[in-house]
Amino acid sequence: MHAPGRAYQPNPLGDPRALELTGKITQVLPEKSGTSTRGPWRKQEYVIEIPGEYPKQVCFMVWGDRIDQFGIQQGQELTVHIDLESREYNGRWYTDVKAWRVEPAGQGAGQGDGFDQSGEPPMLDGEPPF
Fold first, then answer.
1. What is the 3-class SS of 35-98, one letter each residue?
2. Do residues 72 and 21 touch, judged by C-beta distance below 8 A?
3. 23 alpha carbon, distance to own chain's centre
4. CA-based radius of gyration for the chain
5. For residue 2, what pLDDT is reported?
6. Which pLDDT value is given to residue 98?
7. Quick one: pLDDT at residue 7?
8. Which of 59, 67, 111, 123 gives the lowest tally of CB atoms within 10 Å of its CB?
9. What phi and psi values does residue 89 have, to the nearest 5 degrees?
10. Spatial CA neighbour of 68 closest among 42, 49, 50, 29
11. What would the CATH number be for the domain defined by 20-110?
12. CA-CA distance, 101 to 89, in Å (whole number)?
């Protein structure tokens, strides 16, 4: 679901490969949960290492039932399709990296058993800013 009058686009650049990370899951962080004005919520964060001359690590999050649907485990080689969202809280800016689709690395979009979850990420009203 999305806010009235606001169109949701999982990838605003139009290129389905523009916002994705491919690498190895190096950490599965503890699940967090709570209750906001919109009801109960849960999220889990993961660290993916992007290979290269200078490998990069990126922490991304998965919300709600997608945690169970994606079933991400340490050591998996995955392509994670993401949305980026920043917001200000008490004079500081926080950026979330939210996964909306996960598939085995090397598997193109629309091929095989990718976990396509193209719904809108949950709104952040009443949820912690970190």
1. EECCEEEEEEEEEEEECCCCCEEEEEEEECCHHHHHCCCCCCEEEEEEEEEEEEECCEEEEEEE
2. no
3. 14
4. 15
5. 40
6. 95
7. 40
8. 111
9. -145, 115
10. 42
11. 2.40.50.140
12. 27
Q: How far apart are CA 73 and CA 27, in angstroms?
A: 8
Residues with Cβ within 8 Å of residue 4, at least 6 apart in sequence = none
Tokens standing for residue 40: 């109960």
Q: Which amino acid does the sequence have at 88?
A: E
Q: Which residues of the chain have pLDDT under 50?
A: 1-9, 11-13, 17, 110-126, 130
Residue with token string 């606001």 = 6
Report how far apart, in Å, the C-alpha atoms of 60 and of each of 53, 72, 100, 104, 111 are.
Answer: 22, 12, 10, 16, 23
Domains of the chain by residue range: 20-110
119: its two tokens:
């719904």
Provide the token pair at 65.
Answer: 């039932």
